[in-house]
Amino acid sequence: MRNRKLTSIIGTVLLCLLAIGGCRGNRAGSEEERVHDLQQIKDSGELVVLTLYSSTSYFIYRGQDMGFQYELSEQFAKSLGLKLKVKVARNVRDLIRKLQAGEGDLIAYTLPITKEWKDSLLYCGEEVITHQVIVQRGGGREKPLKDVTELVGKDVYVKPGKYHERLVNLNKELGGGIRIHLVRGDSLSAEDLIAQVAQGKIPYTVTDNDIARLNRTYYPNLNINLAISFDQRSSWAVRRDCPQLARAASEWHRANMTSPDYKASTKRYFEISKSTPHTPILSLREGRISHYDELFKKYAKEIDWDWRLLASLAYTESNFDTAAVSWAGARGLMQLMPSTAHAMGVPIGKEQNAEESVKAAVKYIGLTAQSFKDLPAEERVNFVLASYNSGIGHVQDAMALAEKYGKDKNVWRDNVEKYILLKANEEYFTDPVCKFGYFRGAETYNFVREITERFEQYKKKIRQ
User: Is the confidence at residue 340, as pLDDT, over 90?
Assistant: First the structure.
């Protein structure tokens, strides 16, 4: 009897030990399954990056994914032999939440390096130094400010948030005297304020130095040399359990900061001018707009356009320069993106051939017009021109916003054009009705107005 009890006890102990061992084995297995570092990413064939919509990180332009951080992450993924997949978060905290939840592998955004996040993240890649600067006009009669003490007695316009907070603190440090104007409401973005400085409508505003550098490519008269904050270190980030991925990103940045692709991306966003110089009509007396008038006349008939409207579009796009290449990579007389040109039948290598460019542009315009076929002809032209400049997705977003806020989604002027402008504002491009995110809408707003107004001038001066 005693032996039987002893055997039973030993059996129970053995079962417990096996159970414990099994539990440990399962726990180890589950931990291995949870690991998703570089090797597992390579096995999947895809690098999933998390980012935010902005003019310096990621946006969609003419149907193409663009943005400085996007291009760097694309180059990094290519170096690993991986496809890139982009997921956009709502804000910085949402970026970190998505990363920790395993919804992405890497934050491809200049994430501030803070004590708050150091325990949960591994910072990696290039360490970028950012700071806030005063945006002011350069040259002219009034000399640019060179010291923060000169802000006393000056009017500075800012949106609520970190720029306003920094100005308030700076004002306290200086003993007061800065006239701070808080611009409330959602009709103006921080970049709209930069444009107003460039146009002389307001004297000063504040932004981060990388945003200031990008905007100076649109407005070369800006001075952005006066820093008003301490330097803030920023970089990419991964989860703490991804040291291999962090190491690979840092090594890639060190090795590629002087590469042709890296330099080209830097130039595209922070150095190349975004404006196109323009010249007047070729010969008013002879009734000629350009050297390509016969091409415009030949192909405009295919879309039932006045050839002078097509000429006005070409003038705005390239200044009739067949060799023109935009900052975004659009080429030729009609400035089509290479992928669009090829989809419209332009042979590779002939993107800057005048006739091929006009023929492809007309085909693209005809296809785009189908999306607005229910609109009156005059309205359809506005929507097609806007889509030509921005890509149809942003126009559809603006139409959805217009409808949501009680405007006529089928009328461009003073209706949909208002909401293409507002797509530069976070309050609007994060609206659930928007599918294509951030967009610098002022360009499209002006594009449509300039082309249609010039077309009216052409009609008065140049015979049909």
Answer: yes
DSSP for 211-257, written as a single string: HHHHHHTT-TTEEEEEE-S--EEEEEEEETT-HHHHHHHHHHHHHHT
Average pLDDT over residues 299-325: 95
Catalytic-residue membership of 317:
yes
Total structural domains in the chain?
A: 3
pTM of the model: 0.86
Asked if residue 311 is part of any domain, the answer here is: yes
Q: Please tell me the predicted confidence (pLDDT) of residue 25.
A: 38
- Shared-domain flag, residues 355 and 213: no
Contact 131/231 with Cβ under 8 angstroms? yes
Which of 71, 191, 317, 379 is an active site residue?
317
Dihedral sign of CA atoms 66, 72, 78, 84 in order: negative
281, 461 contact by CB (below 8 A): yes
Alpha helices (H) in 349-406, listed in sequence order:
354-370, 377-390, 392-404
Output the domain CATH number for residue 47.
3.40.190.10
The answer to the question of residue 258 being in a domain is yes
pLDDT in tens, 124-134: 999 999 999 99
